[in-house]
From TrEMBL, chain A:
<keyword id="KW-0694">RNA-binding</keyword>
<keyword id="KW-0963">Cytoplasm</keyword>
<feature type="domain" description="Exoribonuclease phosphorolytic">
    <location>
        <begin position="196"/>
        <end position="261"/>
    </location>
</feature>
<dbReference type="GO" id="GO:0000176">
    <property type="term" value="C:nuclear exosome (RNase complex)"/>
</dbReference>
<dbReference type="GO" id="GO:0034473">
    <property type="term" value="P:U1 snRNA 3'-end processing"/>
</dbReference>
<dbReference type="InterPro" id="IPR020568">
    <property type="entry name" value="Ribosomal_Su5_D2-typ_SF"/>
</dbReference>
<dbReference type="GO" id="GO:0071028">
    <property type="term" value="P:nuclear mRNA surveillance"/>
</dbReference>
<dbReference type="GO" id="GO:0000467">
    <property type="term" value="P:exonucleolytic trimming to generate mature 3'-end of 5.8S rRNA from tricistronic rRNA transcript (SSU-rRNA, 5.8S rRNA, LSU-rRNA)"/>
</dbReference>
<keyword id="KW-0007">Acetylation</keyword>
From TrEMBL, chain B:
<feature type="domain" description="PIN">
    <location>
        <begin position="99"/>
        <end position="218"/>
    </location>
</feature>
<dbReference type="InterPro" id="IPR050180">
    <property type="entry name" value="RNR_Ribonuclease"/>
</dbReference>
<keyword id="KW-0255">Endonuclease</keyword>
<keyword id="KW-0378">Hydrolase</keyword>
<dbReference type="GO" id="GO:0000175">
    <property type="term" value="F:3'-5'-RNA exonuclease activity"/>
</dbReference>
<protein>
    <recommendedName>
        <fullName>Exosome complex exonuclease RRP44</fullName>
    </recommendedName>
</protein>
<dbReference type="Pfam" id="PF17215">
    <property type="entry name" value="Rrp44_S1"/>
</dbReference>
<dbReference type="InterPro" id="IPR022966">
    <property type="entry name" value="RNase_II/R_CS"/>
</dbReference>
<keyword id="KW-0698">rRNA processing</keyword>
Length: 291, 985
């Protein structure tokens, strides 16, 4: 993972600041950095979003493809995740350097998103036991400046919101053979309900307190962090501890509570922004990667 | 939150295909840098992949503002040349002002015949229309492209999809068709505004949108566009062209018109939709095949099911209902009938005489006949309608505009057309296209396309037989001609790099008289070591025809030059065939040479191939060459060379025959043409001279040597020619015939056959051997081209050669061009290209070549038959001697050696009571009253032209000797008239 070298004096400065609820860049402990979201940035995906959080930049593309449902859940579709830690983001990812992080990230994403409580997997079913939609979620890290989980989860939620799956019909001939028919209208497509899609809030324990959206410097001062996925109702769907240090149960409780609070507050403006953008329709000014 | 097991690292699916649209017109040219505003849009659509997945495809789409309108009247557009004229006047009672036409897609698709008419000019073809047409119908697209290329037609293609102001995006809820219709309307609107604003004198130049869709017209009206441009239904517009009423006939019928024509009676079962057909074929309840109507019985057809490889099966279809509106060559879906409904093919000749016999064929007595697989047509997968040649049956009702059309090809049903020029068209050969066949109509509906000329006229009939045999015979297009070398042409030093200079050799060519496409020349000289050097030099056509260009594609499509009596339809443009590639005397020509070193016993010691330059010293005819050889006074180089060749050829021929090559015989006729009228004035069978066989021997040798070389070099993709051995049953007729004269013929091997044919002689019957050879020829299989990678039987039965190809006539056969290219690659004289090494592509090419060769042969025969008819028309009734070639159930087939003519003498006819006829299949013999006919019997017949059916004129033969009362006819005393009557032309 991208790390920065922080001197002892700097560490003390950061620690003391956080103790007084004042972070190096002037934020409070539960404040996010400036965030920008743009959807529909990659035209040849079915849904895409680009999120920048501070200097962290993440691009998510979703491709819908027809596949076979998993045998245990024949009436559900599923999601596949792939995280590409390109060397673009940081030189450490060069060669196979980003592989480990990529696997770790995608494992977490499976846990958080690939279940029927987060995404309405039943709506992805085309024909029970035979055909379902498989959403290939490809995450591309463009730049790393801390707090990857949060940025990725927001980008995924935005991309899922943006996803337009072509509507298909199953036609049956008299012999019982089934044929998938595709509508020739490109506007005739299915949207996903993203209401219950959670966002991940990462809380970093720095000193005795914890912060959200830690920068790389703050991360260097932290012993461990807790990632919590929270829905818009404040329901925690997943927690995981990352980092080498240990957390005592009390601070886990505190951090979870803070995570719920922050997460709940995150969803409302996010959905707001997404809906606003959607309403712009074709008039939307594309920013893309040059903005 | 169960994790779904191990996490695989899936490949990234982020990148999907991005295809750049190449339809962007080239930027403005001409020195100065033009500032072009380019706007990027993207077109998105989803597509189902073959594996059942779904793919989203995004295409970049650039818009620009430098697409000009193409009108002469416009001063705003910076175009260099214009297509559309200022005075675009058409005498229409609906549009009195000058106007440009904008047809929509359906108008182009259905009324292409009208658009092709010379009257229709100044038409704007929108890119939207062009693309849709291309997508929907390849033949119409090609015709449209041809019209656009024609300068006098003033058709302009406007790339509205890339124009900044006329590009529109599809809106939610809009179907693709609606979007295209809207795009057409937007472009029409743009044009009318554009023409209005250009301040020049536009004289109220307007655009007229042609449609055949009421809805489209209505939408144009609703959106208030009509003050800008006029939108007219195409039928109304064509009817309004007061100066050209004949155009109305060329209108294809639209759906509304069809209903009014037909009665309410439903005659045919409904065709199944394509989706049901596909499902049915998948599940095996239907089979797909090509519909082949019977020539003799309009109520019967077979459907040919392509099986594995070459073989296929046939399904019989019988009865109007079961045929269900399928037309010859359509691809249809067939459902098999239950076994108890299977029938046998009837042997009755039934011609459609009209609506009287609408119902099924009467049950015939079928005791002996074996029932075969029978089915019914349930749907049409692909129509294979082309314009058909034929003649009009003018309706009995005088005022009627609806008439039936009888195609020349008996396998095509009659077509109902609507025309007001029936009286002019009667007696002419015309072309008609089918528009549709509603289920309540006895005949398909069609429309008149064009007239070919008066029936029976030579030019018309020639055109008909070319069209009916699918021989591409249009003049070469400009695109093709552009690839011809620029004249004056000369050999450049670059040409010489990989060529051997053989200009010093005494090369000469020997061909039939009047031959202008000389593709082979020969030489023979003595070497210092006493051996002989023999060279076969073939025109280097592949030097001029480079792979993949329009010229090459055209030649590949034509496949072969077609020789008709008095006319040649070239495979390559005349500049090549009769000039640059023709190895004429005393000019330098590029050649591909095959040079052998031989000893005097004609054993090949060395073979080599090279590209070369030659300078032929003489172009001789067979007769001239023969005279030189025979004339002992002549001792020049050419004559010596010819004698050497002749000597070797005789040895080669002997060797070949020893190996079992067959010398078969078929009579070829040669017409002596009147030099002015080009009418045949005499007819004789072609004579063969020693020199014919001399040239042939060396061509065979060259072909075999080349075949071996290219096969050694390219095992997978050599283009070869094979001649399969015929199945033993083919020989039945030959064996029976020989047996009747107590002659034994052995057919176990080619060698045995050749030998037994050689000794087959009957005393006092010198012509017997030739007749036997003619019969043997009929037993043979067709020789075909094939790709060596797709087959493993290479044997050429007739030539008794293990391998064979065609190398020696690249001017007139495309196969030879491919062989030239292969050989050139093999000797490092030329570079290769992918299609040459692709055995599947080559196999497809071979199929086309085989088809074209077959059709060329048929066309040739039809041409000979037609000229024979012309000849006998001028001769009146002739009395000739002939031989019985075949004996049939109710007729004998007689060959007249003098004319190489074959004709049938029928013993039963409609109006006469059939005499007692006994047919014995074993003989085969036919006994009529007391006389028995056998194969090879000598008979005398009268020959006359039967012109009772003007479409199918034929030679009629009647028996005069032996005299059989009630059957034979008296000998006409009118001997050939001294002076032939002038032919009415």
């Amino acid at each position: 993972m991208a790390t920065v070298q922080v001197s002892e004096a700097e560490k003390v400065y950061i620690l003391h600041g956080i103790r007084d609820d004042l972070r190096v860049d002037g934020r409070g402990c539960e404040d996010y950095r400036h965030m920008e979201i743009e959807t529909d940035v990659v035209s040849n995906t079915d849904g895409s979003a680009k999120v920048t959080l501070g200097h962290t930049a993440v691009l998510v593309g979703i491709k819908a493809d027809i596949g076979k449902p998993r045998p245990l859940v024949p009436n559900e579709g599923y999601l596949e995740f792939f995280v590409d830690c390109s060397a673009n983001a940081t030189p450490e990812f060069e060669g196979r350097g980003g592989e480990e992080l990529g696997t770790e990230l995608s494992n977490t994403l499976y846990k958080v998103f690939n279940n029927k409580h987060s995404v309405d997997l039943k709506s992805l079913c085309i024909c029970p036991g035979e055909h379902c939609w498989v959403l290939y979620v490809d995450v591309l890290l463009l730049q790393c400046d801390g707090n990857l989980y949060d940025a990725i989860s927001i980008a995924i939620k935005a991309a899922l919101f943006n996803t337009k799956i072509p509507r298909v019909r199953i036609s049956t001939d008299e012999e019982g053979g089934k044929e998938i028919e595709l509508s020739d209208d490109p506007y005739d497509c299915m949207r996903l309900n993203v209401e219950n899609v959670p966002c991940i809030v990462t809380l970093c324990k720095v000193g005795h307190r914890h912060v959200v959206d830690a920068t790389l410097q703050e991360k260097a001062c932290s012993v461990a962090s807790l990632i919590i996925s929270v829905t818009h109702k404040g329901t925690v769907t997943c927690t995981r501890k990352v980092g080498g240090g240990s957390l005592d149960s009390e601070s886990i409780f505190e951090m979870t509570e803070a995570g719920k609070r922050v997460g709940k507050a995150l969803h409302a403006p996010l959905m707001n922004v997404l809906q606003q953008e959607e309403h712009l329709g074709k008039k939307k000014q594309k920013v893309g990667f040059l903005g | 939150y169960a994790n779904e097991g191990a996490v695989q690292s899936t490949p990234t699916h982020l990148l999907v295909i991005t295809i750049h649209s190449h339809a962007v017109p080239p930027p403005t040219r001409g020195g100065a840098v033009a500032v072009i505003a380019i706007m990027l849009k993207s077109k998105t659509f989803v597509k189902k992949t073959r594996s059942g997945g779904v793919m989203k495809i995004v295409r970049e789409h650039y818009l620009r503002d430098d697409i000009w309108c193409g009108s002469e009247a416009c001063t705003e557009c910076k175009q260099e040349s214009t297509v559309l004229q200022t005075d675009a006047c058409m005498e229409s009672s609906l549009c009195s002002y000058p106007h440009y036409l904008i047809p929509d897609t359906n108008v182009v698709l259905h009324q292409i015949d009208v658009l092709e008419d010379a009257v229709i000019r100044n038409v704007i073809i929108l890119q939207t229309v062009l693309q849709e047409v291309r997508h929907r119908s390849a033949p119409v697209y090609k015709r449209l492209k041809d019209i656009i290329h024609e300068k006098e037609k003033h058709f302009y293609t406007f790339t509205n999809e890339h124009h900044r102001e006329t590009f529109i995006e599809r809106e939610p809820g809009e179907s693709a068709n609606d979007r295209n219709d809207r795009a057409i309307r937007v472009a029409a609107k743009w044009y009318s505004q554009h023409l209005k604003t250009s301040e020049s004198d536009t004289d109220g130049l307007k655009v007229v949108l042609l449609t055949n869709d009421q809805g489209n017209k209505q939408k144009a009206e609703e959106s208030g566009l009509l003050y800008l441009f006029t939108c007219i239904l195409v039928e109304e517009y064509i009817k309004s062209l007061t100066a050209n009423p004949e155009l109305v006939d060329r209108l294809a019928l639209s759906n509304d018109d069809k209903n009014e024509i037909t009665s309410s009676k439903v005659l045919f079962p409904e065709h199944l939709p394509l989706s049901r057909i596909q499902a049915g074929i998948k599940s095996g309840s239907f089979v797909q095949g090509t519909f082949r109507a019977s020539r003799d019985n309009y109520l019967e057809a077979t459907v040919f099911i392509q099986g594995e490889g070459e073989d296929g099966t046939e399904i019989l279809i019988q009865g109007l209902q079961n045929l269900n509106r399928a037309v010859h060559q359509d691809v249809v879906a067939v459902q098999l009938l239950p076994r108890n409904q299977w029938v046998a093919p009837s042997s009755v000749v039934l011609q459609d005489e009209g609506a009287a016999k609408d119902d099924n064929v009467e049950e015939e007595e079928e005791e002996k006949a074996v029932n075969i697989t029978t089915g019914k047509v349930v749907g049409i997968i692909k129509r294979n309608w082309r314009p058909f040649c034929g003649m009009l049956n003018v309706s009995q009702i005088k005022e009627s505009t609806r008439h039936l059309f009888t195609p020349a090809d008996r396998r095509i049903p009659r077509i109902r057309i609507e025309t007001r020029q029936a009286s002019t068209l009667a007696g002419q050969r015309i072309m008609v296209s089918i528009d549709g066949w509603p289920k309540d109509s006895r005949y398909p509906n069609g429309h008149f396309v064009r007239s070919l000329g008066g029936a029976g006229e030579k030019d018309t009939e020639q055109e008909v037989l070319l069209l009916e045999h699918d021989v591409p015979h249009q003049a070469f297009s400009q695109a093709v001609l552009n690839f011809l070398p620029k004249m004056p042409w000369a050999i450049t030093p670059e040409d010489m790099v990989r060529r051997e200079d053989l200009r010093h050799l005494t090369v000469c060519s020997v061909d039939p008289p009047g031959c202008t496409d000389i593709d082979d020349a020969l030489h023979c000289r003595e070497l210092e070591n006493g051996n002989l050097e023999v060279g076969v030099h073939i025109a280097d056509v592949s030097h001029f025809i480079r792979p993949g260009n329009a010229l090459d594609k055209e030649a590949a499509n034509r496949g072969t030059t077609v020789y008709l009596c008095g006319k040649r339809i070239d495979m390559v443009p005349e500049l090549l065939s009769s000039n640059l590639c023709s190895l004429r005397s005393n000019v330098e020509r590029l050649a591909f040479s095959c040079i052998w070193e031989m000893n005097h016993e004609a054993e090949i010691l060395k073979t080599r191939f090279t590209k070369s330059v030659i300078n032929s010293k003489a172009s001789l005819t067979y007769a001239e060459a023969q005279m030189r050889i025979d004339d002992t006074n002549k001792n020049d180089d050419i004559t010596k060379s010819l004698r050497g060749l002749n000597k070797l050829a005789k040895i080669l021929k002997r060797q070949r025959i020893e190996k079992g090559a067959l010398t078969l015989s078929s009579l070829e006729v040669r017409f002596h043409m009147d030099s002015e009228t080009h009418d045949p004035i005499d007819l004789q069978t072609k004579e063969l001279m020693e020199t014919n066989s001399m040239v042939e021997e060396f061509m065979l040798l060259a072909n075999i040597s080349v075949a071996q070389k290219i096969y050694d070099e390219f095992q997978e993709c050599a283009l070869l020619r094979k001649h399969p051995a015929p199945p033993p049953s083919n020989y039945d007729i030959l064996l029976k015939a020989a047996k009747s004269k107590d002659v034994a013929i052995y057919t176990d091997t080619a060698k045995a056959l050749a030998d037994s044919l050689d000794v087959a002689k009957v005393d006092g019957f010198p012509y017997f051997n030739t007749l036997l050879r003619i019969l043997a020829t009929r037993c043979m299989m067709q020789a075909v081209y094939f790709c060596s990678g797709m087959d493993n039987d290479f044997h050429h039965y007739g030539l008794a050669s293990p391998i064979y190809t065609h190398f020696t006539s690249p001017i007139r056969r495309y196969a030879d061009i491919i062989v030239h290219r292969l050989l050139a690659v093999a000797i490092g004289a030329d570079s290769t290209y992918p299609d040459l090494m692709d055995k599947h592509k080559q196999s497809a090419l071979c199929n086309n070549l085989n088809y074209r060769h077959k059709m060329a042969q048929y066309a040739q025969r039809a041409s000979v038959a037609f000229h024979t008819q012309l000849f006998f028309k001028s001769r009146g009734i002739l009395n000739e001697e002939g031989f019985v070639l075949f004996v049939r159930k109710n007729a004998i087939i007689v060959l007249i050696p003098k004319f190489g003519l074959e004709g049938t003498v029928f013993f039963d006819s409609k109006d006469k009571v059939a005499p007692s006829i006994v047919f014995d299949e074993e003989g085969p013999t036919l006994t009529i009253q007391q006389h028995t006919f056998r194969i090879f019997d000598k008979v005398k017949v009268t020959i006359s032209l039967d012109a009772s059916n003007i479409q199918h004129q034929k030679i009629r033969m009647a028996l005069t000797d032996p005299v059989i009362p009630g059957v034979s006819v008296p000998v006409p005393d009118a001997e050939p008239q001294a002076k032939k009557p002038k032919l009415d032309r």
